[in-house]
Structures
1.
Amino acid sequence: MTGPTFRPLPKGIYTPLPTFFTPTEDLDLAAFASHVKFVATAGTVPVVAGSAGEAAHLSPSERIALIQTARQTLDSCGLNDMPIVTGVGAPSTRETVQLAKQAKEAGADYGMVIPPGYYAGALQANGSEALKKFFVDVAEASPLPIIVYNFPGVSAGIDLDSDLIVDVVRSSANVVGVKLTCASVGKITRINAIVNSEEFRAQYPRLNPESEFRIIDGYIDILLPSIASGAAGAISGLPNLVPRTCVKLWELSNSGTGTPEYREAQQLQNRIALVDGLLQKIGFSGMKMLLHKKFGYSALPRRPLLPSREDLGDEWIRNPLLVSLIEEEEKLVSMS
């Protein structure tokens, strides 16, 4: 009897998938499956039940349904080797571990864990020892490899510094990556300088010794400098709209400085940064409205979040900068 297939955590572009709801706030799994196919066949890795997926509004059974739907969709598209990253963070260590175990059974390949923000003050007291222990305890008990997720904006301002992240990696071989939604290129550089050094890897071998520790940038508007500092990719909302264009930026950015491709990467990075700036302002509800305008999915978030206004959605989808990227995407689709 063979064991489960190991799907390595790849370098590249990751798409944090929204969770779509019906007018009665039930999961719209048909829309979700359609969107998984759209982003995955374009070459991006799906991230299920993260911040953009309104994980805080989902029950454990709903998270499982999303993972199962994503896995079934990927397999039906012939993307059997494509991994699924899923948010498993919860307010307590116990619940986070339970979610990780359930996610593994449902078909997830990696668990992404955000700091629990409800008791942020207590977790950051005494040198953040409780915070470090939270991540290590989860990683040691989880059947899924763990990605530490730093996003101060949705975790009561908790901002994991590079020293703490390195300490967590040092303490558990099951921590295989970090997502940094804090726009700190310096943090990427510091973590990479230590964790992916030959000395560190010799002293603390990873889950897969042939694979580097993955540092994933949380903003695609700084992808080019992030790669230069050691980032292995980006998890960004923009690939929900133009996944192939974002993959193109990743490929061009890895072409080597001084080449025509790298100069093209600089130009595309500028265009993408301007559009990503718009998306950061309109938030999760705004992204859902844009996807509603482009694909017809429901624009409804779960209450207490309110949907964005239709007239604003019309204004956003006609933004010349976004229109230009969508036209770029359509060209890439026609070439595929």
Note: Strands lie at 12-16, 45-48, 85-87, 110-113, 146-150, 175-180, 214-217, 233-235.
2.
Amino acid sequence: MEQTRIELLKKLTEARGISGHEDEVAAILRAELEGHVDRFERDSIKNLFAIKGMGRPGPNVMLNAHMDEVGLYVTRITKEGYLHIGKAGGIDDRLLLGKKVLVGKDRLSGVTSIKAVHLSTREEIETTVVKADDIVVDIGAKSDKELAGKVTVGDQITFDTAFGTFGDGYLVGKAFDDRVGCAIVAELLKMDWPFPVIGMFSAQEEVGTKGAMVGAWRYPPDISITVEGTIAADIGEVKDYQEVTSLGAGTVLTIKDGGMITDHRLRNQLIEVAKANGLPWQFKRIPAGGTDARSIQLTKSGVRALAVAVPSRYIHSPVSLIKVCDYENTVSLLSKFLAQLATTEA
């Protein structure tokens, strides 16, 4: 994998941006794409648009990935200086205990905490899942007065997870859902296409695809490709038919998920391109979850929409894994598909 792509992924995954706080991610993408697109735009909900080739012949093609990550936010500050939390997006409460986090604009270090195991009853330990409402973040403050001007209700709390390599060809980090999609869309926007291309890096996907619901109306596309990081459950205790996708098996193509059915003709064209170029691909084997594609598909009189993804273990958690080969194969497959689209949809 090219070092520049590794560096971009590192910047994006280590950036902080729960739903509604996407500015840091948008700034990285804008800097990366400066000089490669004609112009940038932001809208009221904080979607970032990277536009190139408007007015050229051919279909308007939207390349979409979402900027926000699942995380937490401050709901209350106690007199003792502890922070109560709420969840932004779908996070399993079982994953929240004992995690290092960063709080607010100043990236204050903290840890999620409850009372020690020594003070818990056997029933609490063996049968109780501690709810997010009962967890606090400790940032080493002695009182709420000490936090005045540093932390306020509504501040974002993100997981403090470093990007790095792992095992044989793995990358480890937070927010591969969907910073890996952002990186791939950025790579595709650096390439030249003979048709109009709208890069939409959307906001607030993790709380109901709200950014895409609004943003696709700004530049209604004819064809849309949403690029995601999706569930890979290829781990020991999961039954074969529940694995959804597998790491190392190539780009994930969605037939149907919890929100939409993808365009059959475009999906079949994508499969033919993969076969012709010897690129691995796999179907998403359980129709779980949903993506921005469902909102984009319903724009105006309807959009021919695809959802493709890089498989990722442990999404919606503080740390996840992807394989370099899946990332590279997805860039290659989509670039070749778009090249063919230039002739078939002209």
Note: The first strand starts at residue 39 and ends at 42.
3.
Amino acid sequence: MSDQPFRLGWEEWVSLSDLGLPALKAKVDTGARTSALHAFDIEPFGPKHKPRVRFAVHPVPGRDEPVIPCSAEIIDRREVTSSNGETELRYVIGTTISVGGRSWPIEITLTDRYTMAYRMLLGRQALPEDIVVAPSESFCQPELDYQVYHSARVREAQPQRALRIAVLSREPNNYSTTRLVSEGEKRGHVVEVIDTTRCYMALNALAPEVHYDGRRLPRYDAVIPRIGASITPYGTAVIRQFETIGTYCVNGSEGITASRDKLHAHQILARHRIGMPTTAFANSPKDTGNLIGLVGTAPLIVKLLESTQGKGVVLAETKKAAESVISAFRGLRANFLVQDFVKEAAGEDIRCFVVGSKVVAAMRRTAAPGDFRSNLHQGGTAETVRITKDERETAIRAAKAFRLNMAGVDLLRASDGPKVLEVNSSPGLEGIEKSSRKNVAEIIMSEVEKKVRPAPARRRTAKS
């Protein structure tokens, strides 16, 4: 074992791996009491009892790329006076520094050092007593290289930063909402429930904003929409505003709008050649007979375009009954469609829960005795089910057709293959989690993390 003291020069290469910064050139200044790290877009977030701060770093002096997003717990806020006499109130975080194979914990203040030659200042408080600083020497420890930021392997190994996620929901105590909040917080993220109808928007070309309860909402890494059918127009307008700002939305406004309009939804399924029950739509009362004829013989399903959770869906067992239901709906000036009744489904359907490009869980829903609707809200029951390859592929294709990253795709098992009944853009989690015994909320949060993780910076090539 060497008796030589651990030496540092006045400049050294250091690593802050906990922050995802594997290589920084730091100035070692024993004349400075505190340490400082270059940071911008500094924003506190999280609960008051355990506040966090997120920020971004340009690790390479003189360059705007790469940009490394970071987050950490706040230890303190401290007034720091710089060498030019200016005093600034800074956030203080704790992390681990590594130099030449040796690591130790330090406290760092966050400040904008963009114009400085060194992205980090290492002050005397951060130096253990047994370290010797040689002010006339440089790089006493092994040197690193900024090219490490262009390594895909290093990028993949970066720590997952804490995300700020908004769940758009009018029901904060709803099972699905509370599960998403719980799983997000369990993974170290801050998840806020925002009442969609209390959002309002500032529309302008340079700085579009979303406001809530008299204040501008902060920058969210992701938004998980849980938009009720009754507020679809306003809810999708709020989502469009987040999309305009550049926030990642798990489900986009176009997909939600299309999935809520039953006629539009069936047209999208037809365009993508996805199997569904034969469906017809007409506006004129004179076309009732032809409308029924296009679908086939009774029994038939007559369904309101705005129906949800099985409400507004009627089974007409005879042609005469179908004509009566159609006449009644027209009397109410309601928009509806007529659909073939798949007898072999026998009051059962399959709910496939799609996240990303995978079916992550599935359940079979069975109608209550005397009912044909298998919706759990109508008294149906659910149990886990093994789906076929064809059913899995159909569900994934249906979700992709609507450009939805999270969807509940309802299928009927017909004699000629699976038929898509509906694509739900705000599927509930309670039935699917309890029947499949899978942690679907955790899978959703994992997908959000993948989507908002920054892409590796491109290596710049020298111009010839």
Note: DSSP finds ten helices and 27 strands in the chain.
